[in-house]
Design a protein that fits this description.
One of its GO terms (biological process) is 'de novo' IMP biosynthetic process. Helices cover about 50% and strands about 15% of the residues. The protein is of the alpha/beta class. β3, α5 and β4 form a beta-alpha-beta unit. The longest helix is centred in the C-terminal third of the chain and has 16 residues. The structure holds 5-O-phosphono-beta-D-ribofuranose.
Length: about 180
């Protein structure tokens, strides 16, 4: 019933209505990146933030990248999390094609332990920003939290969930370390 009512509205109105359902796109250059990017997805799940996960390679599927990035805003996305490894052009190329905030996650590469990914993502020329996070799991988790913080600026319920998430994290930190001996 609710969905039927939404489909009955004009296309532009539909985009606005669906925007809050999946405001985040989690894109990655390869299936092999999912092992890292799933941590961003987990945080979004925990905070009840809708997202879509897609494999989009700047090098292997450039047309897919162009079509996604140029249409992302109209499709209702509000933040893009982009993870890639090696010559990691995905976040920067995505940012060049959309005004949406792009958070870049350097995936740990086998050859250079992700330092290649990090430098590829963080060293953007002035004028096209990418929010570069840490290499690997920490970067993916923080990209999810960063996306949440951006969205929470205009979503009081999400702001409360993010506050509770951080409170729970604080409470989970033991005062003293467990010792095996
Ligand atoms: C990059 O190349 C991907 O982001 C991935 O991190 C890396 C290796 O990709 P696969 O060879 O595992 O597909 O484009």
């Amino acid at each position: 019933m609710v969905y039927a009512a939404r489909f009955a509205t004009a296309p532009s109105r539909q985009a606005a209505l669906f925007a809050h359902l999946r405001p985040v796109a989690v894109i990655m250059g390869s299936q092999s990146d999912w092992e890292t990017m799933r941590h961003a997805a987990s945080v979004l799940d925990e905070l009840e933030i809708g997202y879509e996960a897609k494999i989009i390679s700047a090098h292997r599927t450039p047309k897919r990248l162009y079509d996604f990035a140029t249409g992302a805003k109209a499709a209702g996305f509000r933040v893009i999390i982009a993870g890639a490894g090696g010559a990691a052009h995905l976040p920067g190329m995505t940012a060049s094609l959309t005004q949406l905030p792009v958070l870049g996650v350097p995936v740990e590469s086998r050859a250079l332990k992700g330092q290649d990914s990090l430098l590829s993502i963080v060293q953007m020329p002035a004028g096209i920003p990418v929010g570069a996070l840490a290499i690997g799991r920490a970067g993916a988790v923080n990209a999810g939290l960063f996306a949440a913080a951006i969205l929470a600026l205009t979503d009081a319920a999400l702001d409360a969930r993010l506050f509770a998430w951080r409170e729970a994290q604080t409470q989970a930190v033991a005062v003293e370390p467990e010792r095996e001996d």
